[in-house]
Amino acid sequence: MISDELFQFKVTGKKTEIVEDSKPSPTFLQDAVRRLSKNKGAVVSMIILGIIILIAFLAPVIAPYNPNTQNIPHANLPPRIPGITINGLNGSSKLQGQWFDRYELANVPADQNYLFGTDEFGRDILSRALYGTRISLTIAFLAAILDLTIGVFYGLTSALKGGRTDNLMQRILEILTGIPNLVLVVLMLLIFKPGILSIIFALTISSWIPMARIVRGQTLRIKNLEYVQAAKALGASQVHNAISHILPNIAGMVVVRAMFSIPSAIFFETFLSFIGVGMKIPNASLGTLLNSGYKMFRIHPYQMWIPSIILCIIMLAFNLFADGLRDALDPKMKEQG
Looking at domain 43-70+131-333, which of 2.30.30.240, 3.30.390.50, 1.10.8.50, 1.10.3720.10 is its CATH number? Predict the structure, then answer.
């Protein structure tokens, strides 16, 4: 035992007070949440995404009209927002240099408004945008889940088995990588009937390959660390090591990769629907809305601008949030001091 007399100031003789920090150190998850909350861009993007996802999946409740119901007399009506007097947003459109009230010309009741206007068949663009965003997000989320599941399982199996199994599995990846994604996806969509399941299956065929490569590389690094080798020496199986030691250490990287794959899937689905091999008209998706809108762009530009703006907001928000999540889950990004 150390005597208390040793802990005295030489001049005053007062005893020093040893203050122990009783505050527990934050866990990795708490530290990641704290870093993420300091990233204003990521927080704002997360809020925007939450609002968009909530509104999109409540489309059957929020949508004012049936997205596929045609009303030819109300075709190509510009947006009319109650209380707004700005030309182009109050139901008026320009014709031969003059502004005309299109709703009055079409005998639309005063209490009936189309906030985003209508398309060439008189369908409400707001309702179609809500349902289209819902379909695009559903396809993207399901494709990302399958991408994560297949990629993680394939990468873990390849790295843990090693030897000939690893070589064979990597050669298969190289063969799949050599086939252009667009060609493979279009061929799959031409073979199967068009629809959501066909698009998800087509997107999943090759999108899991980058995830599998990343997981394999991280697994090869972690499985040779001391604590994993010690667990193996004590009789732990490969499955136990994968679940208890490897997956927790690569979870952050896997989540970030999955987050980046969501906007890629949204953009790819939009592109496929835009060129006519994805969702089929009259089913609404962001791609089909763009496909219909670009044909009328010079006459009714709002029909293309509205889905384009929605797509840009979703893509930008997902990428900013994924970027912030990557910085938050990376221990090397901790603040200095």
Answer: 1.10.3720.10
